[in-house]
């Protein structure tokens, strides 16, 4: 596809997503698209309701429907994925997938778990046992606080607080509990005395994981929250010297198919990282009109999504099935284990992850719709199950397994809703302390006016 066609697609998707309130006529070409959209969003939502761990109400780390699911894993719940699940439950109430009472009951259960489960300087671990609240090590030395996953949960809790803060007595109490949990996270501690945030801390292994978080990747939301915390906030220098690495975050004119990236994507991300980098931090953080000294985030996320799309259309690896209606590379299950699929020779393994295109709906509405309709109308028997589209598949390897991950199903529900109504963006960006934090870091946004 030539550059001018790509440019037209970019302009169209940019305009489509700028308005937070759109009519069905603007969102969908026909009734079939709207019907499938609703079915996909609701089925994906069920991962966090019907599929939730029953005692904690939290999202399970994974659900396998093929029988290959160790019983010891069925109780493992995830902090980040459950943060996405909190946002999905808000969508569920708003869309009437569940009653408001059902949503409140489950969210109350989740808050109780978060209040009583293992925490480390206010931060939660990556995994727990959902029945006991005891940390489940993510790795040998990763048995303490995980500030990135905690930030994904906080993104959800702040949306919960805003959603319920003017409600009934019961709803206001939920909002107050979420607010208390947010204020108890000690972001300043996770600096380890430096102008950077560290991903992990453990009372047993201290800072031995040794992972200072620098961009660009999926972690922008952590720095925004750290700057915004009214109780344990960090100065702007932590963002500029740590995350932005003293300006080294800016890219040296990374281009593909006429599209450029402003950021230096970490690792060997030749044409941009896995697509979740443009999604996880932006489930609540509204990228529309969001800018700072380093980037225009709407442009960055849209271009990353369009590069991902165009790579699959060009299909340099000659993988079976790739094309305009079958695209999307991100971190997910893979034919062998788990992989960070991305648009480059070394990271494209012929595996398509539906969450990549579906969670890109705000950035690439036409391209995401084409993929969704293709998968649902021609591959439903192979790809669609109780909790929506399976996590990943490969036509090249004839590999289709009914398996799901919380961190992939959650963004589908949330970003489809942000495309439809801007609900989670509006909730998160209405937080007074987020406005203060963004201004402190030098951001511009329509929400700050």
Task: Describe the protein's topology.
Blueprint: H1 3-18, H2 24-27, H3 31-45, E1 62-64, E2 76-78, H4 79-94, H5 100-116, E3 127-129, E4 145-146, H6 147-164, H7 169-183, E5 200-201, H8 220-228, H9 236-243, E6 250-256, E7 259-263, H10 297-314, E8 331-333, E9 338-340, H11 354-358, H12 365-378, H13 380-383, E10 384-385, E11 388-389, E12 393-394, E13 399-400, E14 403-405, H14 406-420, H15 423-429, H16 432-440
Antiparallel strand pairs: 1-14, 2-3, 4-5, 6-7, 8-9, 10-11, 12-13
Report on this model:
- This protein has 449 residues and is mainly α.
- It has a single domain, classed as Glycosyltransferase (Alpha/alpha barrel).
- The strands form 7 sheets. The chain has a two-stranded antiparallel ribbon with strand order 1-14. It has a two-stranded antiparallel ribbon with strand order 2-3. A two-stranded antiparallel sheet has the order 4-5.
- The longest helix has 18 residues.
- The protein is globular, with a radius of gyration of 20 Å.
- The N terminus is likely disordered.
């Amino acid at each position: 596809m030539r550059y001018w066609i790509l440019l037209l697609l970019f302009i169209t998707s940019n305009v489509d997503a700028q308005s937070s309130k759109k009519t069905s006529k603007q969102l969908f070409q026909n009734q079939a698209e709207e019907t499938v959209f609703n079915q996909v969003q609701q089925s994906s939502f069920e991962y966090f309701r019907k599929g939730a761990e029953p005692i904690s109400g939290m999202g399970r780390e994974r659900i396998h429907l093929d029988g290959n699911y160790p019983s010891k894993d069925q109780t493992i719940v995830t902090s980040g994925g459950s943060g996405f699940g909190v946002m999905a439950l808000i969508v569920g109430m708003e869309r009437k997938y569940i009653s408001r009472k059902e949503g409140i009951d489950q969210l109350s259960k989740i808050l109780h778990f978060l209040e009583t489960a293992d925490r480390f300087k206010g931060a939660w671990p990556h995994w727990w046992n959902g029945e006991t609240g005891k940390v489940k090590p993510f790795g040998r030395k990763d048995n303490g606080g995980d500030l990135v996953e905690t930030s994904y949960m906080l993104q959800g809790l702040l949306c919960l607080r805003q959603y319920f803060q003017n409600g009934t007595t019961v709803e206001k109490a939920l909002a107050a509990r979420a607010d208390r949990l947010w204020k108890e996270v000690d972001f300043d501690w996770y600096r380890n005395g430096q102008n950077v945030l560290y991903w992990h801390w453990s009372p047993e292994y201290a800072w031995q994981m040794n992972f200072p978080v620098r961009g660009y990747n999926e972690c922008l939301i952590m720095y925004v929250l750290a700057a915004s915390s009214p109780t344990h906030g960090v100065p702007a220098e932590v963002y500029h010297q740590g995350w932005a690495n003293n300006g080294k975050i800016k890219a040296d004119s990374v281009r593909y198919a006429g599209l450029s990236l402003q950021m230096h994507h970490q690792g060997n991300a030749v044409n941009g990282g896995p697509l979740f980098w443009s999604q996880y931090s932006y489930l609540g953080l509204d990228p529309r009109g969001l800018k700072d000294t380093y980037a225009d985030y709407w442009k960055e996320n849209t271009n990353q999504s369009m590069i991902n799309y165009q790579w699959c259309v060009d299909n340099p690896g000659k993988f079976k099935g790739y094309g305009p209606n079958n695209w999307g590379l991100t971190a997910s299950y893979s034919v062998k284990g788990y992989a960070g699929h991305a648009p480059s020779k070394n990271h494209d393994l012929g595996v398509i992850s539906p969450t990549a295109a579906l969670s890109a709906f705000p950035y690439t509405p036409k391209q995401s719709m084409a993929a969704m309709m293709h998968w649902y109308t021609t591959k439903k028997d192979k790809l669609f199950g109780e909790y929506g589209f399976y996590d990943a598949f490969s036509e090249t390897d004839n590999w289709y397994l009914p398996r799901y991950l919380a961190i992939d199903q959650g963004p589908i529900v949330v970003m489809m809703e942000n495309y439809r109504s801007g609900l989670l963006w509006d909730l998160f960006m209405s937080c007074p302390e987020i406005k203060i934090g963004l201004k402190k870091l030098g951001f511009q946004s329509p929400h700050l006016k």
